[in-house]
Amino acid sequence: MNDAEERKLALSHLWVAFIAFIVACFMGEYQVLERSGFIPALDSPSAYFASVSTHGVLMAYVLTTFFIMGFGYYIATTSLKQPVWNKPLAWGGFWLALIGVVLAAIPLLTGKASVLYTFYPPVVAHAAFYIGATLLVVGSWVWCVIMLVMFVQWKKANTGQPVPLAMFATTMNALLWLWTSAGVALEVLFQLIPLSLGWIDTLDPGLSRTLFAWTLHPIVYFWLIPAYIAFYVFVPKQAGGFLFSDEMARLAFIVLAVFALPIGFHHLYMDPEQAKGWKLLHGIGTFVVTLPTLVTGFTVIASLEIAGRLRGGKGLFGWIGSLPWTNTMVLSVILSLLMLIFGGFGGVVNASYAMNGMIHNTAWVPGHFHLIFAGTTVIMYFAIAYYLWPMLVKKPLFSSSMALLQLWTWFIGMSILTTPWHVLGLLGQPRRISTVVYNSLLTLAWKPYEFMMIFGGLILLGSACLFIYNLAKTQFNASTEVFDGEIEFAEPIHAVTSLPEWLNDFKIWNKVIAVLMAISFGYPILQFFIMDTYESSSWGF
Amino acid sequence: MQTEPLKAKCGQVFRNFYAQVQAIHIDQLELKWITISMLVIALFVGVITIDAFFHGVNPPSKVETIDSASLHLNKEFAEDNLGVQVDDKGVITIRMVAGRYSFFPKHIDVPAETSLTFRWVSMDVLHGVHIPMTNMSTMIVPGYVAEITTTFPKPGEYPVLCNEYCGLGHNHMWSNISVIAKEDWKAPVKSPAKGGSNNE
Ligand code: HEM
Ligand SMILES: [Cu+2]
Ligand SMILES: [Cu+2]
């Protein structure tokens, strides 16, 4: 199959993702510098909040969405061994999303949309920001449709056959994203765009927060699933072993997608507009969704152990030493898991209903999600990029020792950045502040931690530059060597030849999600139309 | 009613499903791990649920609305009603207004080791309030009263910090609270607020 067009499609998406990433990394380093107060000339709330808003949008929406789309197209075409369905439509989605990003970037960079990536009303930004964000989401819906169509078409042509695991997981992610993005889409279409254009005068911020919470939790699973796909379908093979169980992997993706959705209220624990029973219900669901992560952790470690032993590792821990530590995929998964263990521990604190009160909206929160998102998840994006790049550009990776150095420095930098960030949270520092002006003794204790963060950020920035340099060199170097390797998916220990429908299709899970969402969000949204509520008019920032 | 065929059908579906689950390749060790994971999760969920139902450990969740745009006309949150008030039964209620960029009143004195009920409202945008080192933390959403009851164990001077971005002056949004040893604290001389419903 000639996949030149597919490779171009994937590369275009991935480049947009990584350019957004490197730009945002420079902003991140500026932010840690600014907020430390180390260079008084930098001090400026308007520049800081324009920067944090842009950094948040680029990292959380642009890097992730474009990466997932590009990765998904390539997974679909390679695992199903067929061309991407309706390529003009796919390109249409790409351009729509890209135009959206540019449209949103203008007000962001000119300080007209300093409302942060969570855009909590009634503070309102320039309408172009919301319209741009909408186009980005609509572009991603095009991708979802293409994934679902390719899935269904393949199943029709291959009746009774198990859909390849990589494609099954990608399709579950597309389904997850359609459901996830619906909440914020309702908020943006019915509240924010009309308010920012002056079509309506008021909105209910309680309803806005409820709709945003609908999106805010499952979106992190949307970002995380590519990392899990790599854990299951690339890592075992790269380590020299086998996938533990194909069916259990499917179950993990199903539980992840289904239970990530109806639990968003753990972002509203401290909110007055939702009652405690609903919060408790979502709190319990939050614990249920840790199950697939625990299973995934087990499977990854088990498949690494198999590989280590096949490579001659002996003893209880001897197999760890005999793993191929110089394989970028294997090194990434080890570092990723280390960050997941620490980050997961922090996550349990956040999720614990009442303990949340201590750290809610403190510096602990960005500390936590940089560790688990910028760490655990993004390091796997790097690993995937290093793995796919030679296949996409048909040239060998420019330097794999540079890649290994980059992965190590990302891990070290992230540890140095996020450890003091967590401590600052426990010491009461609020998140999202550009300077410390509180006239309180408490704040003296914050200083040394802020300095450490500058240092951690610097290492990360260097690491990010190495990453981009390596990819660019690989692609644009006038190398005569040709790379003709192909993507290799891990084999399960027990090959699956047939599967029950519920492990091989998404339609039944779509229904389950619909029921769960109706239960967990039905009344909490309806209540705003039943109660006597008072709306807010719009405010600038 | 013919329930027999229905029952038989359900039984059949269930048996099929069970057989399918049985056919999944699952390693013994993995099964053990999943069982342990489930037990741990059940334990966490159990503790939280019991805390919530029997010990009243709950976040602020009283769904009470208020018109943030006309707080100046609201009796409960009128200026001379703000701050600390003690009713005839000795119950302490503290009414606070959050607005860009401070909390009002800017300074209050409260007793340590005493149950305090805070009622926070916003007069403009979204805010959050946190008193570091304590669990006095809540979001203040315009249109809603955020009510939270808590106790401060240790006397001292504490900052009251806004912890949700509310505009470019967000950094400057803070006030003070003095927690005073129980025996040294005196109730402010003010008429007890009428309290209760707001928007009559
Ligand atoms: C060079 C490395 C990085 C540094 C130094 C850095 C630093 C920061 C800082 C200082 C903030 C502001 C937090 C606050 O004001 O409370 C921030 C926000 C944020 N960062 Fe990063 N960051 C880095 C990389 C990343 C990466 C790789 C991601 C995700 C892929 C990420 C995602 C975010 C998001 C979503 C926010 C918005 C948080 C909010 O609005 O509260 N960052 N970052
Ligand atoms: Cu505020
Ligand atoms: Cu604020």
Please explain how this structure is put together.
The complex is a heterodimer of chains A (541) and B (200). Chain A is mostly helical and 541 residues long. Chain A has one domain (4-537): Up-down Bundle (Cytochrome C Oxidase, Chain A). In chain A, 71% of the residues lie in helices and 1% in strands. Chain A is built from 16 helices and 2 strands. Chain A has helices spanning 4-36, 45-79, 87-109, 127-157, 165-197, 205-239, 246-260, 276-288, 290-310, 318-321, 328-351, 356-359, 364-393, 400-426, 447-476, 507-530, and strands at residues 202-203, 536-537. In chain A, strands 1-2 form a two-stranded antiparallel ribbon. The longest helix of chain A has 35 residues, at 45-79. Chain A is globular, with a radius of gyration of 23 Å. The relative contact order of chain A is 0.12. Chain B is of the alpha+beta class and 200 residues long. Helix content of chain B is 23%, strand content 30%. Chain B contains 2 helices and 11 strands. Chain B has helices spanning 4-22, 28-54, and strands at 64-65, 83-86, 92-99, 102-104, 107-111, 115-122, 127-130, 137-140, 144-151, 156-162, 174-180. In chain B, strands 1, 2, 3, 4, 6 and 9 form a 6-stranded mixed beta sheet that branches. Chain B has a 5-stranded mixed beta sheet with strand order 5-11-10-7-8, with no helix packed on it. The radius of gyration of chain B is 25 Å and the shape is elongated. Chain B starts with a helix and ends in a 20-residue tail after the last strand. In chain B, 32% of the residues are buried. Chains A and B meet through helix 2, helix 6, helix 7, helix 8 and helix 9 of A and helix 2, strand 1, strand 8, strand 9 and strand 10 of B. The structure holds protoporphyrin IX containing FE (HEM) and copper (II) ion (2 copies). The site of protoporphyrin IX containing FE has 24 residues of chain A, from helix 1, helix 2, helix 13 and helix 15.
